[in-house]
Write a structure and sequence with these properties.
Layout (H helix, E strand, L loop, with lengths): L4 E4 L3 H12 L4 E4 L7 H5 L3 E2 L3 H5 L4 E4 L4 H9 L13 E4 L5 H13 L3 E4 L2 E2 L2 H5 L3 E6 L2 H14 E8 L3 H29 L4 H9 L6 H11 L9 H18 L4 H17 L8 H9 L15
Parallel strand pairs: 1-2, 1-4, 2-3, 4-5, 5-6, 8-9
Antiparallel strand pairs: 7-8
């Protein structure tokens, strides 16, 4: 019998992931604290559930894509949470970014109810998720991973099974830390080009072709140059993920000098623009400080990488 899936957390990223799952033909129930986010999925044939408990009672596995460990715990183990509805032998799969300690602690709670856990955070950006091309990093038992591999492959590629539960959280924190450092560096590079009198569109392409390029430059620099900043990822989430990185550095005895500076920069940007601002607006701190914008007329309105 085909696995019946639920998906909870239909924000910018979760909505795109759930849409890929539905597009691949999976039976899908959905829920979100904001019912409006489910409209495109309901139009595509997904079914709505009124609560995590109601959803869990009708599926074999539930994906969640939630903004913090606290929210994950509430959805999983709250009074009307998933564990009140999931049957023994079912699976909870968290696709949001949690820290290693939190996912292992929550998995232990789920295990007491006979529920398996996988962590499957993704990396590559919301535009990659919308295309079903986002990389998926999986931690957990190999047998549980193989059981749900088809669904994970429907949402993204490549798929990396990096080890036991907690491993994927560490890997995701590392990739996000690098992305935020690269973003601040890309903004500084573009500002040097602008103040140096160079054509910003051409400078973008030269950097892209150079040894100094990065995935973040190839994608998010476009959003700075066109002035939209719309990366589908908020400043609040960036600060949370950088906090995870700093905590991991302390736990493992690794000095994270660049990450520490970047964390402070993002905190200043959050205070300046608000937690709901796009994370790419961290570059606007430099633009505002120097009263110099980084627009490139005619630059693509949407991501092309």
């Amino acid at each position: 019998m085909a696995t019946r899936y639920g998906f909870i957390g239909l924000g910018n990223l979760g909505g795109a992931l759930a849409a890929s799952l539905k597009r691949a033909g999976f039976d899908l129930k959905v829920h979100d604290s904001n019912p409006k986010t489910a409209k495109p999925l309901l139009a595509a044939g997904a079914a709505w559930s009124d609560s995590p408990r109601a959803l869990a009672a009708t599926v074999d596995a539930v994906f969640t894509c939630l903004p913090s460990p606290a929210v994950s715990e509430r959805v999983l183990n709250g009074a009307d949470g998933l564990l009140t509805g999931l049957a023994p032998g079912s699976t909870w799969i968290e696709m949001g970014t949690d820290d290693s300690d939190s996912i292992q602690r929550l998995a232990a709670i789920a295990a007491e109810k006979g529920v398996f856990t996988l962590e499957a955070p993704v990396t590559g950006g919301v535009h990659k998720a919308a295309a079903g091309e986002i990389a998926v990093i999986v931690g957990g038992e190999a047998s549980v991973f193989e059981r749900h591999r088809p669904a994970l492959e429907a949402m993204g590629r490549p798929i990396f099974h990096v080890g036991p539960l907690g491993s994927a959280s560490v890997m995701k924190v590392i990739t996000n830390m690098l992305a935020f450092v690269h973003l601040v560096a890309a903004g500084e590079a573009l500002m040097l080009a602008k103040r140096g009198g160079l054509d910003l569109a051409q400078a973008y392409h030269v950097i892209k072709a150079s040894s100094g390029s990065s995935f973040v430059h190839e994608t998010e620099s476009q959003l700075v140059l066109n002035g939209s900043y719309n990366v589908g990822f908020t400043m609040e989430l960036a600060c949370k993920d950088l906090g995870f990185a700093m905590n991991l550095g302390r736990e493992l005895g690794v000095p994270l000098d660049l990450a520490a500076i970047t964390t402070q920069t993002f905190i200043r940007a959050r205070e300046a623009f608000g937690g709901g601002a796009w994370s790419t607006q961290v570059v606007k701190l430099l633009e505002d400080a120097l009263q110099t914008d980084l627009r490139a007329p005619g630059f693509p309105a949407e991501l092309t990488a």
